[in-house]
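Question: Send over one sample?
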Amino acid sequence: MKFGSTLRKLRRDRKLTLSDIARKSGIQMATLSRIENNKMTGSLNNHFELAKALGLKLSELFQEFERDIIQENNASA
């Protein structure tokens, strides 16, 4: 699991579009698309703004990512 995949899952769970997140976070849609497609990771500031746009604290965003990694590792074990 990569960070972008977690981000996409969280965005879709909230029924938000890339355009919605771009507007709320101030991050360009092209950048968001590259992050979600794991072409780039984005800066810590990007992650902070994305967490806010999703209604999460930064620590909660990273906890979701960690949870996805653990689930993926358990599934492949």
